[in-house]
Amino acid sequence: MNGNGPTKLVDPLEDPVPGVGTYEDFNTIDWVREKSKDRDRHREITNKSRQSTVALLHSVSDAFSGWLLMLLVGLMSGALAGGIDIAAHWLTDMKGGVCLIGFWFNHEHCCWTSNETTFQERDRCPQWQSWAELITGTSEGAFAYIVNYLMYIFWALLFSFLAVTLVRAFAPYACGSGIPEIKTILSGFIIRGYLGKWTLIIKTITLVLAVSSGLSLGKEGPLVHVACCCANILCHLFTKYRKNEAKRREVLSAAAAVGVSVAFGAPIGGVLFSLEEVSYYFPLKTLWRSFFAALVAAFTLRSINPFGNSRLVLFYVEFHAPWHLVELAPFILLGIFGGLWGALFIRANIAWCRRRKSTRLGHYPVIEVLVVAALTAVLAFPNSYTRMSGAELISELFNDCSLLDSSHNFIYFVFFVFLPVSILADRPAGKGLYTALWQLALALVFKMLITVITFGMKVPSGLFIPSMAIGAIAGRLLGVGMEQLAYYNHDWFIFKGWCSPGADCITPGLYAMVGAAACLGGVTRMTVSLVVIMFELTGGLEYIVPLMAATMTSKWVADAFGREGIYEAHIRLNGYPFLEPKEEFEHSSLTVDVMRPRRSDPALAVLTQEGMTVGEVEALVESTHYSGFPVVVSKESQRLVGFALRRDLLISIDNARKRQEGIVSASQVVFTEHAPSQAPDAPPPLRLRGIMDLSPFTVTDHTPMDITVDIFRKLGLRQCLVTHNGRLLGIITKKDILKHMAQIANRDPDSILFN
Amino acid sequence: MNGNGPTKLVDPLEDPVPGVGTYEDFNTIDWVREKSKDRDRHREITNKSRQSTVALLHSVSDAFSGWLLMLLVGLMSGALAGGIDIAAHWLTDMKGGVCLIGFWFNHEHCCWTSNETTFQERDRCPQWQSWAELITGTSEGAFAYIVNYLMYIFWALLFSFLAVTLVRAFAPYACGSGIPEIKTILSGFIIRGYLGKWTLIIKTITLVLAVSSGLSLGKEGPLVHVACCCANILCHLFTKYRKNEAKRREVLSAAAAVGVSVAFGAPIGGVLFSLEEVSYYFPLKTLWRSFFAALVAAFTLRSINPFGNSRLVLFYVEFHAPWHLVELAPFILLGIFGGLWGALFIRANIAWCRRRKSTRLGHYPVIEVLVVAALTAVLAFPNSYTRMSGAELISELFNDCSLLDSSHNFIYFVFFVFLPVSILADRPAGKGLYTALWQLALALVFKMLITVITFGMKVPSGLFIPSMAIGAIAGRLLGVGMEQLAYYNHDWFIFKGWCSPGADCITPGLYAMVGAAACLGGVTRMTVSLVVIMFELTGGLEYIVPLMAATMTSKWVADAFGREGIYEAHIRLNGYPFLEPKEEFEHSSLTVDVMRPRRSDPALAVLTQEGMTVGEVEALVESTHYSGFPVVVSKESQRLVGFALRRDLLISIDNARKRQEGIVSASQVVFTEHAPSQAPDAPPPLRLRGIMDLSPFTVTDHTPMDITVDIFRKLGLRQCLVTHNGRLLGIITKKDILKHMAQIANRDPDSILFN
């Protein structure tokens, strides 16, 4: 026993060499080291605060900097979300026409001054002119229709071209939804620039363009990325967060909550989303702070009032009709549909993305986007349900009495474009419903197909809205079906007692909402957060039960085909080192089976605590690619002393060679506390105890892998040393574990690309 | 390297000896071992399920047993909560009078058949007679008042006597709120019988009695205990949960959510309460299941409909008036009040409880309860605000226009009991408000004092309602003050612009709610869950901001005086080994400073993997009190092999002596894989590798304590071995850490009683 107290600092390298303790790009951080660093920093500030008033003030400001940062993140994200909403609204309307008072007004704003009172009429105020009116002077007839059609395609192509070009030119990280990468980053991975200012600027602009182009994508997922960018940039204002990767990830977790909060106007749901779906390390302090930030963001957005109705989202809805227990059957049916769709979508999308990666398709992202945008525009315009934006569609489907109101204007191109459109305007109302139904059915098929190829293109693209739209259409269809069934068969035993003839006993809007939740659940495998987000959209506790039944069914059904959600699937596709915190490791292997070196490998590369020269160490580092090296007492005993990281070793030796006198290749490298006695003519030793981790994690070779995986997950380790009866035997890294898991699941272990 | 694969089972003890792997009462469980055991079990079921249909069905039923259990817990807890509500309502009313149609009706039910229509009148229907009416024939005059008064005291004494006697006679664990103990149990402690059937039965009955007796306590905290008892009892139906302490704790975490869900009608708040306040290990699966159980319970309670208004709680409220930014100042003031009250209450209550423990006061719990009940009844009756139950009081204070309606009936005893009550009935309305105000002020002082001595008595007693009541009174007082201020000074610059003369610009009910949240927050230090519970009570997102401002202030203010909430303070008072997961360990000690043996202690008691006899092992175990012993290669090398628990050692040796032939004191104890060669006449060796933990956790002596504490918390360890350069140096247990923390905080380290 050597009771020598803290020995970390008995070292000439007391001032840390710049760079020691930082990480390279595409590497995993060491959570334990980062958190320990932060505690050291905090301790220092606390100790100093007792000495002077200035230091005390510094300590107080340090304590509150987290809250201030949260406030700023909330304000900035809320403002950006408001801006994106307004801009997207305006550009989307521009595809249909232009405001004569000023082109910067959107359709609704343009018509506010109009005298017509009914909503339907106000929609066609004289100040707003469709492109056909503007160009041909009339809005009737086949020619006008074709002009509008062409203009719609033109704008769609222009917007999507701008979006993809900007992304490619300035910020390649701005594409996609960003959630898979954010999950990976939050789990402790470094992707430099992914949350930088260029990504933020370009993502904000191109998100507006992509949404407006009419592609089958939403802005909700990317808003999480935008909020995380804001948080990351604002972190640079505070040393505490700038310098510590773990602390910064706490802020990013909160920012993810902020993103969902502004996307759905659901602060509580946002916090739960961050907790359930994206975060890795989520202490209670973060819970409370994310809630604060999510609220600030929601209220900022509300004060911007992008939709002019003091609601945070387009598809807020209030139901008043109760639901009956019998209806649980169709709700569960919707859950099954959602689960099946989720499983199918993930497979199809991943297959498509893999194809894009492996074939020549991946070399022409701009052309791909343009082709998909053209296809979307050509097919979407004739059907009023696909022509409107996803959020508008969802809002209509959630609402109770809008299905017929809006569907008697346009009909599906393929069948009717060459007929005079006007003759269809006064068809009987009974027929109207059927038209609406098959339009919806076509919209469903179209959305399903186009979403598969859209998600993953090189433009910002969220999945929430397309998934919800698909579910909402399916739900609405089922709801209308149920309504008809109840209407014509209200004396059936299942309707008897709660559905009197003529009464409005089925709420198709609720079915749409349940369907939306089911599909979103199937695709993302969210559970609590999804139900709470939906609950915050409706505001009625009693609708939780249908939502819950559908979400639960959907998750079970989807899980039966594969346990990964779309985000995990994309993480795996990209080969990021992500250790899923949700799933249990169920295999019975032992750590000795997974660690390196394997039996056929050369022996483990180790450093000895004394006796090696600078040259030998350099040669060892050069000849291997490991990220770190265990330090042992001697090669014979293999008793473990500590662990030194490759990067720290290289930087320190490099620095010593430049700055420290007498350090040459023959100098001894010493990791012990006291330098060993040397020959008098030997060069001075290089003491590197300061960069060695004196508390490396170890497990025994007999530790079952499930426990080892648990340790890696819970402590956020990067590597762990393996011992047998006190002797160092090997090393196990996160990558080894992931490769082992891939092997068990019959996947290619080399698909794990990063450390 | 010895690539010998899994070796755990190469042992004659393949069938585990009964008792090995279980725990003694008042001991800490090993989370890692329990979870690993469950994974083994799950693996076995999965493997078997491929063999036959029966096994497959078993596997499916096993997978769904968790959900079934949750459903049962929800149903049972919801039903019990409904029963408690109804019974408490009835008994509380009985203190005032009796229903002539049938004594089992409460006041409201009794008057349902009455013809009078207004609520005020219906309250005095002829079927319901106060005790004075029944006995003296009249309800007017001082004599009737005194009769009612005496009957009120009589019932209060009777109920509290019954409550305390039942608790003492049948289930001593039924007293208190139960939350501190549940927190400790969830963190991995064993208290046998704390969640047993007797505790459940007695707690349910005595909770009703205690609440009805008028003592200053609530049923909300104990409902968490009741729900946990239900869960624990229902766990016995499923092997998966009966046999595994870790799995059972997952269910208990969900049950805590259920308890709050039925107590406040707030399922989401309940889940967050469990997550934030009571749970220790809360995986996402539990989140989802608790949400399900909380919902089931809420809907069960709603279908029982205990309050006859389809609300789950008495004090549900809907505000419609908006609040103004200026009002944040009084809200923050309420937060400061709440924080101060919280800090003060914790100190006073802990001092009082310590006094009870250390003086003769603790020997007479029945007399104590009777005295406090008498005191409460005598002082509470004359003031209408204290006479009603806590929940009713809160409901009145939260509501917008009931302050004057209900206060013109009774006046404070000390001043007016000897005056004819009737002459005060028709005083001017302006005076009425002032009377109400000072009655409220007196009620505030009374509640504050009586709650301090009530919480901790030997009856079931929750803190939520009294704390909320105190805050609600303070808030209401401030709200009325603000209202008057705005009324008389609506041209002040702070009121200008948003408070026109005559308009109702201040909502005193909102102030009451904010005050309630602030005081509850100060006492319990809840944050998110508190805000969400309150949000679910009001249903309006916009009131979150005032609630949040007050809760945040309250927490900060209270934390400035001590970081412990009331539950943590009671845990510490009882000496339970609870490692607070929220607080960071900020001290700079190293593990070597905390581990045992200290420098002056005798060397660490270790077993060697071979060479010790049964007699020597028994002697070592007898001569020490440690819960476990490290196994090393040899005393000289001190290289660690594994860890054996005292209980397992004793049971195994005992079992071997009885059942295994030839095991005597001279038999060698062998922990190695292969028995060493022995003299031919030596007794057969006792092989104990099966009970040895081959993967004990180790840290190095240089590991900073903050990291060690983190490891203990995150992995739920009971002990960890300490090594230096690969050699075993010592051991560190949860108790050592807690003692060290107590020492740093200048507390008595011997106050940690259990392992």
Automatic annotation (TrEMBL), chains A, B:
CBS domain segment(s): 595-659, 692-749
InterPro entries membership: CBS_dom, CBS_dom_sf, Cl-channel_core, ClC
Entry's transmembrane regions: 67-88, 149-171, 191-211, 223-239, 251-275, 328-346, 366-386, 406-425, 437-457
SUPFAM superfamilies according to UniProt: CBS-domain pair (SSF54631), Clc chloride channel (SSF81340)
CDD domains from the UniProt entry: CBS_pair_voltage-gated_CLC_euk_bac (cd04591), ClC_3_like (cd03684)
GO molecular function: voltage-gated chloride channel activity
Ion transport among keywords: yes
One GO location term (cellular component): plasma membrane
PROSITE patterns reported in the protein's UniProt record: CBS
SMART domains: CBS
Topology term for the membrane: Multi-pass membrane protein
Record keyword Transmembrane present: yes
Subcellular location: Endosome membrane; Membrane
Family the entry assigns: Belongs to the chloride channel (TC 2.A.49) family.
UniProt name for this protein: Chloride channel protein
